[in-house]
Amino acid sequence: MASASLSSVSSPFLSPISPSKTLTITALTTEPFISKTIVCVISSSPSSLRANSEPKKRLWKEGEFPGISENSIPGTSKRTPIKNVKKKIDRKGKAKAWASTVTEALSDLIQKKLWIQALEVFEMLKEQPFYQPREGTYMKLIVLLGKSGQPQRAHQLFDTMVEEGIEPTSELYTSLLAAYCRSNLIDEAFSILNKMKALPLCQPDVYTYSILLKACVDASLFNLVESLYEEMDTRSITPNTVTQNIVLGGYGKAGQYDQMEKLLSGMLESTSCKPDVWTMNTILGLFGNKGQIEMMEKWYEKFRNYGIEPETRTFNILIGAYGKKRMYDKMSTVMEYMRKLAFPWTTSTYNNIIEAFSDVGDVKNMEYAFTQMRAEDMKPDTKTFCCLIRGYANAGLHHKVVSTAQLAGKMEIPENTSFYNALLGACASADDLMEMERVFTKMKDKHCKPDPGTYSILIEAYRKKGMHDKIYYLMQERPQLVTNKAEDDIDELMESLI
């Protein structure tokens, strides 16, 4: 007995048949490997359809489905068909789309480091029944709060995560520890470390200890550095190259060259923790910043002989060191060498060149480098404008300081402490103390924290004018940031009063 299939007619989403539409039907016989194709013309007239077809059924639109009739399920009572299924599906789809859009917004806010807005969006998402925050989202927010100087808020978020049933991991604890380390809260960071050691599933690893080591090195707590190394050895945690590079840089900045060379020698002899290009850059940067050009060049050759190849950052370090010592011939040689080996000039490359000329007030070459930088479609950063402002101030072109600051605003250059320090220094060099105080007020209004350099500029400007009362008020405002020179000035003030 032959059976026929008409897939186009059986589809529930069939659109109305147009008049005299030709359909192809394949009839399969019971005989093996025999089939024949019958081509017929179906008329769309109502009389012909009613004569040869079943009772007329509704043609469902896309996204809709027929309701279940009471006859379709044996032994069941009358059942109400499902209504508005398409609307429900649409609502669910819109909800998912909304959630996707908001989660993308959250990721964007985290990337832009806007922690207040990110927390607001996160709380709004958590109120939705379909959204379940994951460990990774908490991790990103805790890291963001740590970078934003909000370790207490990071701890609150961590506690909230635990209350909601998400089991903490070693990575989450390490992120929280890092938040305290970024704010130089060493005791709180060690408290987190002790909690981790008490939890079998959250034991500290090499990354945890590396973050703590960096915090101790930055705070010059080298006695804690040694104790952390001993603890790592007890726990059979081997320091990696990143860990050693961190401590290596700390020893160098503190002037502990014996410890630095001892650590570096151990790296050269190690089979699991060999020096890399970051080690090379760390050592070159240390000697370059101190102006010890011969030592820098000596170590450069040592690393090259060891088989470590330089990178763009390596050449930028050399350019910066030569520029500070006004060794323009060697600086040019490195720049040409980079071009020859197809190493791209970066923003840091141009910043080092601009800084070299700004330090001596060579406005012509400074502006030429800045023009070439923009011609290569390389966007300047905050350091670029700091160098330009200092260069114009050193050259006595204070009117150009104003236009440069305005250009930075037009280009939406981030204004940090270094940027305001450059402006304060320019105002001080022009003896415009009124404008200097306005810049200082704006700096605080922008929630940009002054640093010791800020107060050094202000105190030196006031000292030149004999304004000891101003120095005294600065001492009262932020005594922990005022330098020893400021304290000497205050002593002089007190003696004069006596």
UniProtKB/TrEMBL annotation:
Organism lineage: Eukaryota, Viridiplantae, Streptophyta, Embryophyta, Tracheophyta
Protein name, as recorded: Pentatricopeptide repeat-containing protein
Cross-referenced Gene3D superfamilies: Tetratricopeptide repeat domain
Metal-binding in keyword set: no
Domain of life, source organism: Eukaryota
NCBIfam families documented for this protein: PPR (TIGR00756)
Pfam families according to UniProt: PPR (PF01535), PPR_2 (PF13041)
PPR repeats: 134-168, 169-203, 205-239, 240-275, 276-310, 346-380, 416-450
Assigned protein family: Belongs to the PPR family. P subfamily.
